[in-house]
UniProtKB/TrEMBL annotation:
It is found in: Nucleus. This is TIMELESS/TIM-1 protein. It comes from Daphnia sinensis. GO terms for cellular component: replication fork protection complex. Pfam families: TIMELESS.
Length: 277
């Protein structure tokens, strides 16, 4: 069902029956899995110039209103729904650079408008994963998969999708606070990391507090690591994006030293690793 065309080209969340809220609780509908699979198919055939369906999903904020609660609710008891939701989230959070190519001069104005709306969608995605429950759902599901080694081919593919989602969220742009006062060129240079990374730091803190650092090391030690080693490298690049090379080297040294010294908590996980200089 083409939910966008059924409403005359205007986005409508009512035409995508994924679930509903009742007494502040989200309930997944019986049609949820079919709807998610249909949305994935529609995104795969979306117009590569206008990205109308992708922008429509951003307009109705399906990520925060539906997909985030579905992700949190489904990861324990509805694995098929959870996996399809992750697949859809990976598609929705695709970096802009992979979606928008160079246009002819007469197309640049429209292309800028499309890029603006796509960036708004990624802003919302970044904000959605500030929720500890959203990152925990991903981390816990990866842990469950790694307990079943060796993994089947569909499981290795899905594990890599989970990592791709984390990579996309870390790579997504961060909305700058509207109330932030303008900075001088000196102050802007001095505070470039703090200005850029407030949400980024919070997401990384949440991930590493939930054992993401140890999880990455376990995955790199896995016999099937070739299936996701490239994605892990991309995650590391996203974590240290725009940081001076000497800072990266220093922080990596601190991270490995602290991982050898910090005791495990009650759940057997390492505590959060500071990643900001």
């Amino acid at each position: 069902m083409d939910w966008l065309h059924l409403n005359g080209g205007a986005p409508s969340r009512m035409l995508i029956p994924l679930g509903t809220y009742y007494n502040n609780q989200y309930y997944i509908s019986d049609q949820c899995l079919l709807c998610i699979e249909d949305l994935i198919r529609q995104l795969n055939c979306d117009d590569t110039k206008t990205h109308s369906r992708r922008r429509g999903l951003g307009y109705i904020d399906i990520l925060n209103k539906d997909l985030k609660p579905i992700l949190i609710i489904s990861y324990r008891n509805w694995p098929n729904v959870f996996r399809s939701t992750v697949r859809l989230l990976v598609a929705i959070t695709t970096p802009i650079e992979s979606l928008v190519c160079d246009r002819t001069p007469d197309q640049r104005t429209y292309s800028s408008y499309v890029t603006y709306e796509l960036k708004q969608l990624l802003y919302k995605a970044k904000g959605a994963f500030l929720d500890l429950s959203a990152t925990r759902a991903i981390i816990d599901h990866i842990k469950l998969l790694l307990e079943k080694q060796p993994l089947a081919s569909d499981e290795t593919e899905f594990l890599n999708l989970c990592l791709l989602l984390i990579r996309n969220i870390l790579d997504a742009p961060e909305r700058r606070g509207q109330s932030d006062p303008p900075m001088s060129s000196y102050s802007e240079s001095y505070n470039i990391e703090l200005d850029r990374c407030s949400q980024q730091n919070e997401i990384m803190h949440n991930l590493f507090a939930q054992g993401f650092g140890k999880l990455l090391l376990d995955m790199l030690a896995c016999s099937q690591k070739d299936k996701w080693v490239v994605t892990i490298a991309q995650i590391i690049a996203a974590i240290y994006k725009d940081r001076p090379a000497e800072n990266i080297q220093l922080q990596l040294t601190k991270m490995f030293e602290s991982s050898a010294k910090v005791p495990l908590d009650d759940d057997g996980e390492n505590g959060p690793t500071p990643l900001v200089s």
